[in-house]
Specification:
Layout: E1 5-6, E2 21-24, H1 29-41, E3 46-50, H2 57-62, E4 70-73, E5 76-79, H3 81-91, H4 102-123, H5 125-129, H6 135-155, H7 167-181, H8 196-206, H9 209-214, H10 218-227
Parallel strand pairs: 1-3, 2-3
Antiparallel strand pairs: 2-4, 4-5
Helix pairs in contact: 1-3, 1-7, 4-6, 4-7, 7-10
The structure holds glutathione.
């Protein structure tokens, strides 16, 4: 299926029985989490990308939240990226994204909560307004990222999941990929002297084939976010 983002006037691509479909958008960090889950687990699927600024009418009728990502297979529809990742992990055997023990799953949930409320929200504030963070917000963001650095130190492993990436790694990754492109830290990437373990984690993540395949450059992110609020935001034009 083509990567092209469908907009008004497009038709709903016909659904095939037993084929898992992801409605996504190439620049959406939440949809990228699902792409990573699908690819790490080796799940066969198709992707329908949506122009989220000018959505097709069938998309809004079918999915009233109007947001991507959404998963659909036969009569099942699942949305919200973290819920989608856990759903995929529970339904499809093989590579496991969630931790093995209830205690570790509880620890991961706590970290996930910190990340979603204190880090992702701050990084992606740009998504809606493209206002930079002020000095105080930047300091708070860095303090929250300190907690992730400490957690990696505690876990003594290259990935949050252990020796291979898991749920936390794929939920966190898209925001870290975007920190530089979205100019969250004034055009810098994550300071390696303050975050040595997270910097190594980023290097390790970039070696994972599923991550490499979904990776967009800092320049592509920058151009996408700068353009998002224009009358005709760019989607396919930036993919090249
Ligand atoms: N909490 C949701 C998740 O994790 O899936 C957020 C999904 C979301 O905000 N998606 C954005 C979207 O569809 C794209 S990154 N925006 C379209 C709109 O706001 O109308």
């Amino acid at each position: 299926m083509s990567e092209k983002h469908l907009g008004p006037g497009s038709d709903l691509p016909p659904l095939k029985k037993d084929t898992l479909r992801l409605y996504g958008m190439r620049f959406c960090p939440c949809a990228q989490r699902i792409v990573l889950a699908l690819n790490l687990k080796g799940i066969e699927h198709e992707v329908v990308n949506i122009n989220t600024k000018n959505k097709p009418s069938w998309f809004i009728e079918k999915f009233p939240t109007g947001l991507v990502p959404v998963l659909e297979i036969n009569d099942q529809i699942v949305w919200e990226s973290v819920i989608c990742c856990v759903y995929l992990d529970e339904v499809y055997p093989g590579y496991k994204l969630v931790a093995e023990t209830p205690y570790q799953r509880a620890q991961d949930k706590l970290l996930l909560d910190l990340f979603l409320t204190k880090i992702a929200r701050s990084v992606h504030a740009h998504y809606r307004s493209y206002d930079g963070l002020d000095e105080e917000q930047k300091a708070l963001l860095l303090e929250s990222i300190d907690k992730l650095e400490n957690e990696l130190k505690k876990r003594k492993s290259p990935y949050f999941r252990g020796n291979k990436p898991g749920l936390l790694d794929i939920v966190l990754w898209p925001s870290f990929e975007r920190i530089e492109g979205m100019d969250v830290l004034d055009g810098d990437c994550l300071p390696a002297d303050r975050f040595p373990l997270l910097t190594s984690w980023m290097d390790a993540m970039m070696d994972v084939p599923a991550v490499k395949n979904s990776l967009l450059s800092a320049d592509q992110h920058r151009r996408f976010y700068k353009n998002l609020h224009s009358a005709q935001p760019l989607f396919d034009e930036l993919l090249g």
